[in-house]
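hey
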């Protein structure tokens, strides 16, 4: 894609789930993550569609894995932007507690002095993506670089993800959620609500039926105030996402996003999950 010349630029990665048209309209550069399925490596969003991934996932012989792009990929992205006339870059990525993406970006940024600032969103999927969008919009609005960074910081405190995990085996297998390891005895029967907050995945509530967990999700969402952006998230579960959308559409004055989450996050939560990403304002 051709990047319009601007003094500042936003870089993120595919785990932020920023829709392609939004990224293009706001000149957001998206670095794709990497996944391995049955021994074959795929570039997230390019070599395999999300729908195909979630369809294949239950039948994979070997548990799929993810990988962070190389430092070189980040360096090349930053360099290309500078060659297009950009002066400063804000590189926003998912929680450093959940992935090595942030650390890899920081390593790449060392080669560009103070021109690249790497920012830990403390979130994932559109919890990160909403911060990316707001920061990019602030560039369009003519803010200075420090103000763009402050915009990201302000909305980091206002971004939140709540999700219903349908099958805990995938999250347990990922090893990223420490509190789950001691509760494997009946994890196959449990439906778990989780939140992403302060860079960590926390347990919120658990039930033995999807219906009860779904209603708890709606109940929590109904308490949110001053919603600026709201997204319905799902992992290969469009019908569940449709039902959730119908239940929460009136919570936000702006149009909802409906996103089939990136394959790289889907590996850790499994198919059939639904959730909400919210961004609040004063």
């Amino acid at each position: 894609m051709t990047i319009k010349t601007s003094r500042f630029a936003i870089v993120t990665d595919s785990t932020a789930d920023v829709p392609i048209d939004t990224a293009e309209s706001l000149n957001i550069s998206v670095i794709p993550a990497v996944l391995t399925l049955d021994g074959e490596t795929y570039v997230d969003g390019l070599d395999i569609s999300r729908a195909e991934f979630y369809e294949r996932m239950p039948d994979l012989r070997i548990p799929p894995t993810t990988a962070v792009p190389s430092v070189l990929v980040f360096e090349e992205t930053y360099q290309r932007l500078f060659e297009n006339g950009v002066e400063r870059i804000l590189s926003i990525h998912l929680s450093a507690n959940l992935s090595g993406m942030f650390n890899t970006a920081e390593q790449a940024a060392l080669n560009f002095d103070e021109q690249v600032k790497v920012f830990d969103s403390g979130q994932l999927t559109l919890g990160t993506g909403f911060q990316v969008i707001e920061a990019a919009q602030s560039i369009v609005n003519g803010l200075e670089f420090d103000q763009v960074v402050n915009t990201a910081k302000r909305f980091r405190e206002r971004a939140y993800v709540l999700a219903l995990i349908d099958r805990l085996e995938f999250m347990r297998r990922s090893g990223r959620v420490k509190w789950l390891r001691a509760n494997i005895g009946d994890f196959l029967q449990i439906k778990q609500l989780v939140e992403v907050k302060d860079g960590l995945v926390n347990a919120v509530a658990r039930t033995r039926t999807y219906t009860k967990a779904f209603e708890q999700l709606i109940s929590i969402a109904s308490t949110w105030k001053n919603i600026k952006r709201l997204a319905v998230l799902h992992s290969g579960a469009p019908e569940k996402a449709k039902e959730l959308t119908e239940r929460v559409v009136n919570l936000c004055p702006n149009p909802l996003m409906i996103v089939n989450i990136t394959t790289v996050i889907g590996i850790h939560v499994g198919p059939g999950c639904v959730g909400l990403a919210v961004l609040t304002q004063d």
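The chain has two domains: 8-33+69-156, 159-280. The longest helix spans residues 126-140.
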